Model the fold of this input.
Amino acid sequence: MRAQRMIGVTLGLGAVLAGAACSSDSDKPPVAQPQAATASPSPTPPPEHPFTGRPVTQRRPVLAVKIENTSAGKPQMGVRSADIVYVEQVEGGLTRLMAIFSSKLPTQVGPVRSARISDLHILPQFGKPALAYSGVQTKMIPYVQKASLFDVSDSSTPGAYFRAQGRYAPYNLFATPRKLLAKASQATKADDVGFVFSDEPPAGGVPQKKVRVRYPAANFEFAWSETQKRWLVTQDGKKDMAAEGGQQGAPTIVVQWVKTERSEFHDFTGSYTPLVHSVGKGTGVVLRDGMAYKVRWERPSEEGGTTYTMADGSPMPFARGQVWVVLASRKPIAP
Done:
């Protein structure tokens, strides 16, 4: 714009001088030449969170919380704020959740329940995260003590827990995540766990409205909602509602077929605790954008994350947002 104004002024002045009889070409001032506009560099997009693919300004510590997942403990609080939600089989053929928080924290979370041996095999990929739980079997205590985690259970961090009114024990124990992390300030910050994200779904998906996953004593249905752009969760024939309002669900659901066998642990009724093998390789299905994709998964070691690849060997990108990883077996062990 400055160059154009200079041209206009110079031309006007030249015209006046040209009208004078005594003027010569040598007396004319030089005409300014327009300059090429320089393109401003594109702003650098903010980095993506490794758990959700959404933009973040900074990475925060990782908090894992064990959450009740039967009708007695519902509606659950805080699950909708999790970055990742793992579904694991426990005793009696039932399931329990392990919610992973980092990009944001809910005000409250729960009901908080006890940990299982499978948790200790999933958590090392997060470095040394904080683990909130409400006790373990006596035989398992040494395993927790040796695990790479910060123990923020109700016994080690009682001030972060409270009993919710209107619920009965043991389904009334809730925690305040900010207080939990205040006791684990050195917990590892979020880092790569193998997830890849994209705005648009890749080619090769099969349109799917509903997908069902069965455990020995629990049934899940994930139904695509075009309006919400999420897979909504129904468990045992009932909509899985959140205490904050709305139905539980996520833009990406990973049904990961794993080997499950009896561990050396069992509950007071004699029912064996399942050991879910999240290390190794196998097959699965990824649900996103109303489509299902067959994938292969691989996790070479406990310290590493899990990669998911499509038939051509390329990474399977997830939709941005919360991810549910449903660890299920085609042939689950009997309770």
In short: Residues 2-18 form the longest helix (17 residues). The helical segments are 2-18, 117-122, 141-146, 177-182.
